[in-house]
Amino acid sequence: MLFGREHVERYRATGGEEGHEWQGTTTLILTTTGRTSGLQRSTPLIYRTDGGAYVVVASNGGAPDHPQWYKNLRASPEVEVQVKADRFRARARTAAPAEKARLWPRMAEEWPQYDEYKERTDRDIPVVLLEPVG
Fold this sequence. Notes:
The chain has one domain: Pnp Oxidase, Chain A (Roll). It is 29% helix and 35% strand. The protein has four helices and eight strands; from the N terminus they run αβββββαββααβ. It is globular. 29% of the residues are buried. By secondary structure, it is of the alpha+beta class. A hairpin with a 6-residue loop joins strand 2 and strand 3. Strands 1, 2, 3, 4, 5, 6, 7 and 8 form an eight-stranded antiparallel sheet that branches. This is Nitroreductase family deazaflavin-dependent oxidoreductase. Pfam families: F420H2_quin_red (PF04075). It comes from Streptomonospora arabica. InterPro entries: F420H2_quin_Rdtase, Split_barrel_FMN-bd.
């Protein structure tokens, strides 16, 4: 998470006027369904676009385990995404190895710490594509 709950609340309240631009990059709000609780969970994430998809990285700061939002979307890939004031349904999927090889450098260019996070963990850090539906 970036700013956590406060980031999500300000982003939503301002249609992304506050929170979309963050520390030299851009963020979206990803809402997943809790795999145990069934509750909606919203997380601010750095993104880039690739064709019609939004690309995010499940880095968890290089921690040894995947972030909760990634575990949630693996259990239920139907998600909601907010980019600025635009909210839409999307289907999340983990990038295939060839896609990840292409997308990782672009994401690390956007947020260089991703390469540092990769060095901190033995975990294969997933790259996720959020593909709008409907």
